[in-house]
Fold these 2 entries.
Entry 1:
Amino acid sequence: MKSKPPPDPSLAIGVAGPSLRLLPALSAGQGSLRVAVLAPPWIPVPPPGYGGIEAVVDLLCEALIDRGHEVTLFAAPGSRSAARVRTPLEAAHPDAIGSSLYESDHVACAWEEVDLAAKQGRAFDVVHDHSGFTALAMADRVPAPVVHTVHGPFDENTEQFYQRHGHKARLVAISRSQVASTPPGVSVTDVVPNPIAVDRWPLRVHKQDYLLWIGRMDPIKGAHRAIEAARLAGRTLVLAGPVQTGQESYYRERVQPHVDGLRVQHIGEVGGTAKQELFANATALLMPIRWREPFGMVMVEALACGTPVIAFPEGAAAEIVIDGENGQLVADETAMARAIERVGSIDPARCRASVAERYDVSVTAAGYEDVYRRAIATDRIRQASRAAEKVPERRQLSASPPGAR
Ligand code: UDP
């Protein structure tokens, strides 16, 4: 089992082992905030099926409104929320995830509305960006402090981007493991894990005889490794998830040949109650990932249903899974097969509790509220010092003799 990193006191909110640590609220009792939340333009909020970020945004908007804040959500068309919903584009783009055409259009339209609100005297106090890269690159062009949740990994592809533009917003990581991979020169001061509304997921104590793998058909997510582990254990495996653009050849070569409709079933993309039942009835969720996954909603969803998670100890899996308590951390497919035999000893109620105490939306929304207030306070200090710098300049000008230019 991988040892857990020691708590870092510089983090405002952090996952220290199994419990979430919150610093005392900076400004508890302060009034309601006007928050603009920027979702990506690809998939509506809430997501009809696949869509981790959209599910996070959905829950967070609702919880912020419950906490008395005024929230405007910029999202893909088809979105529904308790927040005021703005949909700058004409259509959602689930098959064009990452397209700069749609992302820049979406962000620029949102920025115009944030600008307009300020000009009309109803400025947003803070903008919370979940949308990708464009908004962060342009975060210093908007008249409100920006909080940017880093949903993707820090890696060789994104390192220079964050080094150049990271200072333009307050960066929030979604796991301690993600903070550990922050590139040099980039500052991440807060960790707020992704939320789940635990009470909306069914707890099931008696399980059916199948293992579950659910996610994108990307090799890093390891559907082919789950197939191997299930085969070694002699158990039935259900695979759920879409084959997205670019994943066709992996699916065709590494996954599809093993799908026989009996021992290995692929049921495609699932959503709603069917997805919840799939999580709740499974003997265990297999998570044979080979990447530094920044969070991993499917693990938290399985645990909320009382379903143990057997994972490789990569990225946040080593934080979410508490070895021997709510699942097991294993090195490879062979160890995963052995762990499947032992998984019946894990208590479903403990699985659910391990999520409720760390990731329930009530906990994480309070965390974000605290981050917003810190971002606003820092922004005010910055503005005050800029104003102070301008005073001597003005004095100098007025002290110059007339016609000195
Ligand atoms: N998901 C879904 N239907 C599917 C496959 C996945 O609704 O067929 C959801 C899953 O429940 C989770 C999200 O998509 O909420 C995936 O998020 P995760 O953080 O696990 O993975 P990533 O964001 O890296 O794809």
Entry 2:
Amino acid sequence: MTAPVFIFGLVSLLKILERNMKYNPLNEIDLNKENPIILGIETSCDETAAAVICGRKILSDEIASSANIQALYGGVVPEIASRAHTDYVAAVVERAVKNAGITYADIDAVAVTYGAGLLGALLVGVSFAKAFAYALNKPLIAVNHIRGHLAAAYLDSPDLKPPFVTLLASGGHTAVLYAKSEAEFEILGATLDDAAGEAFDKVARVLGLQYPGGPNIERCALDGTANVPMPKMLKGGGGYNFSYSGLKTAVINYCHTKEQKNETYSKADVAASFQCAAVDVLVEKTIAAAKEKGVNCITVGGGVAANTYLRQALQAACKKENFRLVLPEKRYCTDNAAMIASEGAVQYRLGNFADMSLNAKASIPLAATLETVQSRRANAAKGG
Ligand code: KG4
Ligand code: ZN
């Protein structure tokens, strides 16, 4: 079944339901529930994921991935991702609910990634979540994928409370943020060009390593030594901003020059040198930001946070400087639905719900991603 047929089917289902039933879920829910049960659905890239959380506790977490098929093409092919989502989404959601040990009736809200990501892939999740929420008369919550990565820190950390400094290191963004509250962020610095994950993926390609680049560079680097000179990466300069394009170009130039001269070189040494350069600057700037903001806690989010070298470097630096480090488990750094449910819980507390006009959005700039979503509850209390 192709994505358009699937979406047409869901839309038709919605129309039939519309005639038979009124969607009015907010009348039926307890907004003050301390630990709401949230179903999260994530289909922004090549993972079809669904998870159920209760408060910050993960009850279930299911993923079906098309990554092994995508690896044959050296990157994510959007149409293959969309088709895989249509094949998997219903079964993955059903499994998540079953493994959580709950019934559909127990769900307090359905949170779904609406952007950013591959449009066709997002549409499958958004259409499914809309139909699901409508059919069960449950509130719908629109989750920004990157806010999900940031909210992963709350999972299984019942005592984590802002303010803290967050390092966001994903495939599309790299930034150091000051989290004032669960919903308010200040950008202290961001990448001026490529994101850290993007640099890992591009360098992997140069080294002939398979997609996704990050884990493969990490594996390759285990056999190498960081002895290849790399550029300084705005270290000690540029405030909390980053620049990865110079590092990427340095690796490309090094490899090409060696190849042109018919000289051999160690891919493992290049991978290790690149990894050190790419990661050390993240750690240095995050620690400096935390000191400047006077917080005592640092959190991390995004796929690059699954990198063992980064995790160990952050752990060592935080221990030395006496910061609490909240490092989500590796599986909650890369794409998953528990993080979407976690951000869903934040929005639930704020009273921010979507309606049936929710649409998918392929790109959302970082500033808009971090814009404070006005709390409808606070507005209502003010009479707004
Ligand atoms: O956070 P993410 O899902 O991207 C966005 O949502 O934008 O993360 C994907 C990125 C990819 O660039 C991937 O290569 C990188 O995270 N990544 C890693 C590792 N695992 C995933 N980078 C370095 N080391 C890893 N172990
Ligand atoms: Zn992601």
